[in-house]
Amino acid sequence: METDVFLNEYQKELDLKLSDKHRLNLANSNKKGEEDGKRNLPSVDDTFVTPYEHEIRNNYQAEVEELYKNGRQVLDDLKDRNYKPVSNELKELSPDKIQLLLNEAGKEKARKLEELNNNHLDTVKDIENSPHYQTSKKRFERIKNRWEEVTKKHNREELNIHFKPYWAYILLLFAIGIAEFPLNNQVFVSFRETPLLTLIMAGVLVITLPFLAHAAGKILKQAKTHKIYPFLFILLVLTVASVSYFTALLRTNYLEELGVPEEQLFLDQWTFFTIGIILFLVGTIASFFAHDDSNEFVEVYHKFHKEEEAFVKVEKEINDKRTAEKNEYDLQRKEIQNEYSEKTALFKNRIQDLNTQKIQIAGNYNKVLAFCQGMERKINSNFKEAIFNYRDTNLTFRNNHKQPKSWAETLGNLNGYFSDITELDKS
């Protein structure tokens, strides 16, 4: 039986139970005393105790035995399982012993922290040496070195482009091609080929003019970096001028066949030639402002920023992993520190805590013992009350009103157990 159950529940239940039994025994002793008294039993000359008094003694002795069984179990548990271990530990503890425990706790803390730190460094090293990260890092470092060389060479870090965005430039070239299509289509209609072949021939010329304008503008923009580019630009201009002239001439011949007056044909020829040249110049100017001075700079610029973006993404993943590992490391380090603090506090306050436990255990032990001793005395008192109640009632109903000789002897106490048990020392 647990101590708390004994102190909080069993005592009240036992007290009520014994009180009920005692009331029943008193009622039975009254009844039996009356019956035996009317028959003048036991006889005046009897010197032995009657069976009924033996029965009363046995009933109350059984209550003592039950009390001893339960109370002794609780007392033994408190003494053997609680009080003695605490007392023994108090005897063994000393300031030197506590200091030894503190030193061992400090060594254990240092060992755990060293192991944790080594594991943390290994984990960080594994994260930083991952193939994916190292490959991306080396690739970025190569293009970064190349980028630094190029920026130093050209003395700039931004593209020298004024026509932005690039897709607007592409749309402009496409618009130039669309504008060229109806002009060129009339030229090739004069060849009297099938509509499909006419469209193909006109389409080739439509593609050629924006392409030549694109090339001319880029060559002109980069003329300083390549000595041959100025000659190529002149060649492209002469080519476009020739194509535009002969295209205008072909269209004039077509209009002449349709009966257009000769004066009008001369004007139309140079009008169409001028329109073609203007469209080419527009495309060339757009290409000039849509390109950089150096192909090398553009190529390295785009590669560098592409690799930089990719590396920044990979590096963020690595940093996230490093941060997660650092947070886990800090958390475990804090747990080790808290564990050490709890141990040191426990060791430093151990003697005081043990004394407190000892006082508490001894107090509970003495409470249980005092209750058991009191209940044992009460049961013995109830036993004698039941015996004397039987004898008084018996004597009242006797005809001769004489006591049996056996009643003259002193009524012995019940066999008790707790009176010889001493309290535990709280000091």
Structure, described:
The chain is mainly alpha-helical and 427 residues long. The protein folds into two domains: 3-105 and 348-420, no CATH class; 161-291, no CATH class. The chain is built from ten helices and no strands. The chain has helices at residues 3-38, 51-92, 95-128, 131-154, 166-189, 195-221, 229-257, 262-290, 295-348, 350-396.
List descriptors.
single chain, 427 residues, mainly alpha, 2 domains, 10 helices, rod-shaped, transmembrane helix, transmembrane, membrane
* Average pLDDT figure: 83
Strand content: under 5%
What composes the largest sheet? none
Using the CA coordinates, give the radius of gyration: 59 Å
How many DSSP helices? Answer: 10
List the domain count as a whole number. 2
Order of helices and strands: HHHHHHHHHH
From the N-terminal CA to the C-terminal CA, the straight-line distance is: 26 Å
List segments where confidence is low: pLDDT < 50 over at least 5 consecutive residues: none
- Report the structural category: mainly alpha
Total number of beta strands:
0
Shape: rod-shaped
As a percent range, the share of helical residues equals over 70%
Transmembrane segments: 166-184, 196-216, 228-250, 270-290
Keywords: Membrane, Transmembrane, Transmembrane helix
Concise structural overview:
With 427 residues, this protein is an all-alpha fold. The protein has ten helices and no strands. Helix 1 packs parallel to helix 10 and helix 4 crosses helix 9.
